[in-house]
C-alpha cells in the first residue's frame, strides 16, 4: 500500500525535518524497544506438471527491534506514525525434493525472508476510566515489504510482496517532567494473506496465510 508510505513521508517532511516542529504544541517524537513474536503458515503450490503434492508448514520466531515514531496529540485522540528502519529476518527453511526421473536426483531448496520498511499508522485513545488513568487503547494499520531470499534447486525465484495488517492493543503511559512520557504496550497484528509467483514457472506459487504477530513495547516520548 503505497498510500501509507506516502503519508509517512509527508508527515516526516512536515514535522520531523523542520525546525518549526518544535513550536507545534502537542507534537511529539519518541523511540521504542519492541519484543516481537511472529507466526505464519507457508504453502508451496507446485505446477500441475510436477508430481509432488502441495507442501504446507507453520513456523514461528521471536525478534527484538527498535523503532522511532512521530505523534500529534489532537485531544483526546493522538495520531502517530511508527517506523522500523532495520530488517526483521525469519529463520532459513530447507526443503529437499526429488526429480521424477529414474535417477531421483535430490534438489535442495532454501528460503528465508526479510521484513523491510515496517510502518504503522495508528491512533491512541485514553480509556475514560478514572481508576485507570494513564491507560489507553491503540489501533492502526501496518505495512511491510517481504523480501524473499531463496536458493531453489528446482529453479526460478519468488518476487517481493507488500503485506498489510490491522493492529490493536492496550498501553499505559506515565507522564514525567518537561514533556517526557514513558509507555508500556501490548499489541497484536493480524496480517493479510499474500501470494508470490515463481518467475520461472508462473503456475508455481508460494502462499503465506494465518500470518500474525504480537509485540511488547517500551517507549520514551518527548512532547513539545
Which class do the helix and strand fractions yield?
mainly beta
CATH C-level category:
Mainly Beta
Distance between the termini: 31 Å
Per CATH, the architecture is Beta Barrel
Number of structural units classed as domains? 1
Q: Helices and strands, in N-to-C order?
A: HEEEEEEEEEEE
Can you describe this structure?
The chain is mainly beta and 224 residues long. It has a single domain (2-223), classed as Porin (Beta Barrel), CATH 2.40.160. Helix content is 7%, strand content 66%. The chain is built from one helix and eleven strands. It has one helix spanning 2-16, and strands at 27-45, 55-73, 78-84, 88-89, 93-98, 106-126, 135-152, 161-175, 180-191, 194-198, 201-223. A hairpin with a 2-residue loop joins strand 10 (194-198) and strand 11. The protein is elongated and about 60 Å long. The model has no long low-confidence stretch (mean pLDDT 79).
Highlighted features:
66% strand; Porin; eight-stranded antiparallel barrel; single chain; 224 residues; 7% helix; mainly beta
Helix/strand layout:
Elements: H1 2-16, E1 27-45, E2 55-73, E3 78-84, E4 88-89, E5 93-98, E6 106-126, E7 135-152, E8 161-175, E9 180-191, E10 194-198, E11 201-223
Antiparallel strand pairs: 1-2, 1-11, 2-3, 3-6, 4-6, 5-6, 6-7, 7-8, 8-9, 9-11, 10-11
Write a brief caption for the model.
This protein is mainly beta and 224 residues long.
Amino acid at each position: 500500500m503505497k498510500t501509507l508510505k506516502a503519508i509517512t513521508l509527508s508527515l516526516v517532511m512536515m514535522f520531523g525535518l523542520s525546525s518549526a516542529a518544535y513550536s507545534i504544541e502537542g507534537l511529539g517524537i519518541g523511540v521504542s524497544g519492541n519484543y516481537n513474536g511472529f507466526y505464519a503458515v507457508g504453502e508451496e503450490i507446485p505446477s500441475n506438471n510436477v508430481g509432488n503434492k502441495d507442501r504446507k508448514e507453520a513456523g514461528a520466531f521471536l525478534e527484538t527491534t527498535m523503532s522511532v515514531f512521530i505523534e500529534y496529540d489532537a485531544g483526546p485522540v493522538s495520531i502517530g506514525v511508527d517506523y522500523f528502519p532495520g530488517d526483521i529476518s525469519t529463520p532459513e527453511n530447507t526443503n529437499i525434493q526429488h526429480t521424477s526421473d529414474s535417477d531421483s536426483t535430490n534438489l535442495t531448496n532454501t528460503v528465508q525472508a526479510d521484513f523491510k520498511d515496517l510502518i504503522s499508522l495508528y491512533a491512541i485513545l485514553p480509556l475514560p476510566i478514572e481508576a485507570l488513568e494513564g491507560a489507553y487503547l491503540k489501533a492502526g494499520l501496518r505495512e511491510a515489504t517481504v523480501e524473499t531470499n531463496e536458493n531453489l534447486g528446482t529453479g526460478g525465484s519468488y518476487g517481493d510482496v507488500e503485506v498489510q495488517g490491522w493492529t490493536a492493543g492496550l498501553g499505559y503511559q506515565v507522564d514525567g517532567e518537561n514533556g517526557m512520557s514513558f509507555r508500556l504496550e501490548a499489541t497484536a497484528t493480524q496480517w493479510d494473506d499474500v501470494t508470490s509467483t515463481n518467475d520461472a514457472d508462473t503456475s508455481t506459487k508460494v502462499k503465506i496465510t494465518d500470518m500474525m504477530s504480537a509485540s511488547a513495547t517500551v517507549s520514551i516520548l518527548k512532547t513539545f
